[in-house]
């Protein structure tokens, strides 16, 4: 999604003018960062709380998700009068955090959430850790007890700065009201530049209440923070030489490409090189699934051609990926004959898991075009490589081992079919958000992704309960798109209270509960590795169970439209009904078989060469020495 797309909340009767997009790092200066129109505000007296709201307004923030409490109450008072900020009252602080993540992922803008001290702040920790793992720009503002009471075990006191330092890009404690504009501006800047991530600002209650002199823009104090944006020219030239010499190259594309917003740049590089492209779980959609060079998702539940291509490659052109264990499998046996070009904005990722032969530190928005230019020049001098044999092998694998599934043998619904039909009947203009587990992998496999920011999920942390609140945030940022939360019956029960938020605020998400009456991925592992001993995975929500809860009744109690589908032949009609309802959220209880499994699969801890296409069935391929 373009960062220049107008952003307006679904809850507002009239559209606001769009706020400014987050600037590219190399373009950032004080005026561009700290005001949508480089607005200068003359000094004026106000409280620290008013300064918080005013700072957010100056930064172009239009939507925040939060839940008030005693320590943040001073800030909620001026928020009531804010004309530029729409506050959405969530039912749980974790929901606020995930909503801010969904907002950021769908729009490319910084997501903002607010909570009070103690348990309010600690309820944000899961969302902060999630955003940190997936490099999501997010600003969390929390209240803290008065500075004089810090350290005294005061009521609802918790050291949230200490708790969140390992799972945020940075955390601030503000005890002086005069520091608020600077800290908010710095937090916003840190969150949205370099490698994006969450930043927490904890503001003592007395700092919120104290008088201060507000002016804008503030003078930021970040002397050690200078993200490198341009890749080193010699490294880029060396990378181009390696690409020109490679016979089995692969463009290994990760979530960093999505954060850098480089679909056009990646497409140009891919078509120039002719190399196959694999897109990780967080990169799905950055390169169109319909493109002939797209081999799909690599890793534990990736496609056979994608996994094979990485294993047999002689050159990995790694763009914004981090060689995580779900992609590499047994790291020592991953892509054993490949040299590695690794481009990433975060130097800490380069050579962390796999040593890079050519490291390139920089923003992919600039690195990829520079690399494309260097490759084009190299091709002009040495000729374009012939990748015909490489593609013959990969195309043969694609034909022999296409991504698919078999119907269930118990007569119950097929979850893959449900998700496939949701994709077909809704199309790529929609946003698809998942929880974590089998339904997440099926959604990654069987939805057609044709554009960036079409697919949102919790990848690195694997947070159950992500889908509903993240879909809510995505819908607020994209009111004109259909937003599907494809959730599991286990995940759905963790955060479904945010349906109340959606109903009250007219946020019409559509929730497809893939109800196999169990913790599906855990059950799959119990089937495969624990001799079918199903210890504590039955949820009693599906077919021939007590249906506790009954998802249809639950949805109706929240004021949603509620549907149930138990047969494959009824799937299309049910989805079409859901797509016709746009005045409130829709929840569909898709009752499916518990026996369906996610294939292909690389068992944990083994080489990707041992990928299975079904239980105890491994593809036949000739591997290189």
UniProtKB/TrEMBL annotation:
GO terms for cellular component: acetolactate synthase complex. Residues 236-370 form the Thiamine pyrophosphate enzyme central domain. Keywords: Amino-acid biosynthesis, Branched-chain amino acid biosynthesis, FAD, Flavoprotein, Magnesium, Metal-binding, Thiamine pyrophosphate, Transferase. Residues 1-29 are annotated as: Disordered. GO terms for molecular function: acetolactate synthase activity; flavin adenine dinucleotide binding; magnesium ion binding; thiamine pyrophosphate binding. Residues 435-590 form the Thiamine pyrophosphate enzyme TPP-binding domain. Its EC number is 2.2.1.6. InterPro entries: Acetolactate_synth_lsu (IPR012846), AHAS_TPP (IPR039368), DHS-like_NAD/FAD-binding_dom (IPR029035), THDP-binding (IPR029061), Thiamin_PyroP_enz_cen_dom (IPR012000), Thiamin_PyroP_enz_TPP-bd_dom (IPR012001), TPP-bd_CS (IPR000399), TPP_enz (IPR045229). Residues 13-25 have a biased composition (Low complexity). It catalyses: 2 pyruvate + H(+) = (2S)-2-acetolactate + CO2. One of its GO terms (biological process) is L-valine biosynthetic process. Its cofactor is Mg(2+); thiamine diphosphate. Binds 1 Mg(2+) ion per subunit. Residues 46-162 form the Thiamine pyrophosphate enzyme N-terminal TPP-binding domain. It comes from the Bacteria. Pathway: Amino-acid biosynthesis; L-valine biosynthesis; L-valine from pyruvate: step 1/4; Amino-acid biosynthesis; L-isoleucine biosynthesis; L-isoleucine from 2-oxobutanoate: step 1/4. CDD domains: TPP_AHAS, TPP_PYR_POX_like. Belongs to the TPP enzyme family. This is Acetolactate synthase. It comes from Kocuria marina subsp. indica.
């Amino acid at each position: 999604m373009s960062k220049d797309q107008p952003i307006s909340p679904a809850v507002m009767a009239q559209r606001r003018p769009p706020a400014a997009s987050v600037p590219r790092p190399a373009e950032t200066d004080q005026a561009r960062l700290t005001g949508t129109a480089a607005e200068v505000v003359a000094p004026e007296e106000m409280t620290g709380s008013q300064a918080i709201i005013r700072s957010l307004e100056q930064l172009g923030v239009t939507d925040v998700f939060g839940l008030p409490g005693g320590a943040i109450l001073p800030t909620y008072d001026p928020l009531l009068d804010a004309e530029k900020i729409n506050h959405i009252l969530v039912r749980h602080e974790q929901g606020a955090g995930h909503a801010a993540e969904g907002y950021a992922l769908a729009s490319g803008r910084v997501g903002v959430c607010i909570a009070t001290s103690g348990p309010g702040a600690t309820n944000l920790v899961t969302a902060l850790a999630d955003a940190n793992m997936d490099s999501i720009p997010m600003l969390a503002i929390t209240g803290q007890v008065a500075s004089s009471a810090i350290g005294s075990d005061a009521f609802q006191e918790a050291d949230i700065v200490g708790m969140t330092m390992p799972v945020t890009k940075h955390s601030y404690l503000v005890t002086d009201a005069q520091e608020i504009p600077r800290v908010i501006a710095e937090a916003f800047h840190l969150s949205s530049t370099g490698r994006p991530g969450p930043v927490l600002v904890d503001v003592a209650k007395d700092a919120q209440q104290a008088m201060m002199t507000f002016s804008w823009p503030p003078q930021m104090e970040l002397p050690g923070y200078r993200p490198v944006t341009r890749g080193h020219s010699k490294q880029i030239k060396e990378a181009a030489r390696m690409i020109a010499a490679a016979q089995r190259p692969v463009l290994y594309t990760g979530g960093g490409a999505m954060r850098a917003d480089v679909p056009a740049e990646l497409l140009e590089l891919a078509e120039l090189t002719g190399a196959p492209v694999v897109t990780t779980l967080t990169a799905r959609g950055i390169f169109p699934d319909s493109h002939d060079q797209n081999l799909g998702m690599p890793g534990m539940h990736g496609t056979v051609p994608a996994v094979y291509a990485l294993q047999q490659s002689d050159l990995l052109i790694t763009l914004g990926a981090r060689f995580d264990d779900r992609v590499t499998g047994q790291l020592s046996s991953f892509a054993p004959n490949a040299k590695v070009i690794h481009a990433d904005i975060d130097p800490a990722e380069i050579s962390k898991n796999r040593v890079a032969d050519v490291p390139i530190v920089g923003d992919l928005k600039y690195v990829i075009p520079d690399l494309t230019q260097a490759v084009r020049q190299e091709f002009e001098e040495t000729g374009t490589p012939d990748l015909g044999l490489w593609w013959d092998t990969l195309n043969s694998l694609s034909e022999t081992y296409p991504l698919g599934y078999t119907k269930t043998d118990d007569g119950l619904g097929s979850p893959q079919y449900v998700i496939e039909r949701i994709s077909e009947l809704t199309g790529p203009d929609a946003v698809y958000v998942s929880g974590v587990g089998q339904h997440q992998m099926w959604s990654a496999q069987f939805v057609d992704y044709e554009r960036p920011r079409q697919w949102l999920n919790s990848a690195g942390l694997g947070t159950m309960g992500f889908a509903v609140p993240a879909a809510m945030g995505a819908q607020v940022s994209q009111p004109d798109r259909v937003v599907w939360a494809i959730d599991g019956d286990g995940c759905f029960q963790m955060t479904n209270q945010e349906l109340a938020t959606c109903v009250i605020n007219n946020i019409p998400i559509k929730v497809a509960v893939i109800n196999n009456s169990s913790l599906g991925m855990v059950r799959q592992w119990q089937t495969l590795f624990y001799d079918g001993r199903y210890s504590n995975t039955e949820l009693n929500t599906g077919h021939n169970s007590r249906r506790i809860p009954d998802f249809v009744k639950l949805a109706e109690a929240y004021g949603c439209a509620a549907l149930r589908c138990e047969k494959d032949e009824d799937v299309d009609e049910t989805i079409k009904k859901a797509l016709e309802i746009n005045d409130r959220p829709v929840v569909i209880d898709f009752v499916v078989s518990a026996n369906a499994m996610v294939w292909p699969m690389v068992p944990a801890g083994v080489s990707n060469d041992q990928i299975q296409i079904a239980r105890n069935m491994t593809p036949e391929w000739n591997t290189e020495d």
